[in-house]
Amino acid sequence: MIAKHLKYVVAGLAILLLSGCERLLIDSDKSSEPVENFDRLWQKVRDHYPYFKYKNLDWDSVYNQYRPSVNEGTSDAELYKVITAMLSELKDGHISVYTPDNYYAYNFKAGYAGNYDSALVRKFYLDKPSVQYVKSGGFTYAILDNNIGYIHYRTFNRDVDTIDAILQLFEREKVKGLIMDVRNNGGGQIGNVLSLAGRFTASQLNIGHTVFKKGPEPDNFTEPLRVYVNPEGATWTKPVVLLTNRACFSACSFFTEAMRQIPNVTTLGDMTGGGGAMPLEYELPNGWRYRVSTSAFYGFDGFNIEGGVPPDIRVDMNQEHAKQGRDDLIEQASQQIERK
Amino acid sequence: MKIRSIILLSVLGYSRAVAQQTDSADKQLLIGAGFGYMTIKDLSSSPLRYSGMGATVRLGYEYNQPKSVQRVLFSVQAGGLQNGIRKQSGVSAYKAQLAYSQYWVLNSRPRTSWALGGRADVWANARLFNTRENNPVSYDAGTAISIGTQANHSFSGRFSRLAASFQLSVPVVAYVIRPAYGVPYPEAFLQDGVFNHQDQGLTGPLVSSGRVRSTGDFFRLQTTTSLTYSFSNTKTIRLSYDWEYYSIPSNLPVSQGNQSLTVSFVKHIHERSK
What we know:
Chain B: Residues 1-19 form the signal peptide. Chain B: This is Outer membrane protein beta-barrel domain-containing protein. The complex is a heterodimer. In chain A, 33% of the residues lie in helices and 19% in strands. Chain A is α/β, with parallel strands linked by helices. In chain A, the strands form 3 sheets. A 7-stranded mixed beta sheet of chain A has the order 3-4-5-6-9-10-14, with helices on both faces. In chain A, strands 2-1-12-11 form a 4-stranded antiparallel beta sheet, with helices on one face. In chain A, helix 7 packs parallel to helix 8 (251-259). The relative contact order of chain A is 0.14. In chain B, a hairpin with a 7-residue loop joins strand 5 and strand 6. Chain B has a 10-stranded antiparallel beta barrel with strand order 1-2-3-4-5-6-7-10-11-12. Helices cover 11% and strands 60% of the residues of chain B. Chain B has a single domain, classed as OMPT-like (Lipocalin, Beta Barrel), CATH 2.40.128.90. Strand 8 (225-229) of chain A pairs parallel with strand 8 (194-195) of chain B, so a sheet runs across the interface.
């Protein structure tokens, strides 16, 4: 009886054996070894980070500086401390590390004024008997008392198509111009940057180029790749003042650089936070997640936005004025539009 | 490579041991559902191996003749995967495949048959890394022409309503789409020197990394083992175990294993000819 069915038993066992084989074929590089994790992170940054020359940073020297602090006995807490100290040398707000117990990101806003108070804007400009503000997608908008359109866009991760209805409303109401406020916009999707900027130009605009790091040497880059903004959705041709502050970061800096190349747009406020790279996220063998910048964007004149995009008109919020309910950036933006 | 060869030889040897009679014409419609288990290592996103359970569904059509077998099968599998270290780092994995197979029977004995043939299929695999902003999706897709074998066996006596089948296929040539960075942007840029994201969305860049590969730089092994129980001449139920392993070498290689256990209901459109 057993002999009769032996071949089926063998066949069934063979199938079970095969199904287990995939774990032999697909090995895991899982490792809690501190040196291996340090080296993997250092190498990934070396291969992908695009700003070593711009920041005058010798990454090999950084390795020699921090690597001796890591050995087989290094604890997770110590490794985190060494790794984040090493990454701080990059002075890049896109760089981050996530561990089960900690989160690291470089503070690119340190030393800069806030220059934005959302409560003040809402109380004294948007939430008044004579003004009705509306939230739509990522946008908050209103027609201010002085018949100027105001839009705040809080993140480039939110779809931009709803702005068409807002611009059409402003057009119907014959507003004098538009204050586009991207203060505290921490960035998001690059597609939304180009799509939103496309509302403010009637013709194709070459706004610059981007390069990707493609190898371990500091100057291993792809060829420069042109970046265009194409007209999209409702086209706005009246005066625009774009409000920026240091917390306008990454995609927001990219947007600011694109907008300042459009003739009817004036940028006003503070230097943006920079962040000209597209960061990608990976994992270390110990399971820690990290982000590293992989590309660099340059404006039409070759301007590197990594350090921030300066405004056409530099304005800081006066705290005394703020106490009186005045946002100096909105006030001066209104004056700019009135003058045009 | 050695491990792959051993597996291939084992499977080929095993396939001769399984059997079913195919001496009559038969058209079948199949619908099934079941559980799956996926294992993935995708270096575009992580050096860690992810694995986890999921679900699978399939729709199929099969035409069995005394000397040949034709089959069309569409299957979808999805699952939630973990790396075994951090639950926050979950991956949602999806697999879809449409395959057409044609086998020619080489030796038809009273209860066993052995067939050789080939298969053409299109597939897409996507891995969605839940917490990532700019590179949440890693994917590969393509089409392949494979060689394959099939063995069938009909049991006798009190198991006469039971039949077993085994199928195996290995691609000989394939067109594989696998972005080098795990995100399509670089290919989009490099396509003609222009960042065309706004105009084309991801439609163009999605496929621009595709190229023809042979067995040396694209390996896949797919097997199906099934037991079929006939209620009548027109209705059967089938328990299938599918196992697939594939590997795409590149500067950021991906390897994936898929297992599934599926229960299918089979409707015979025409009664068997005696």
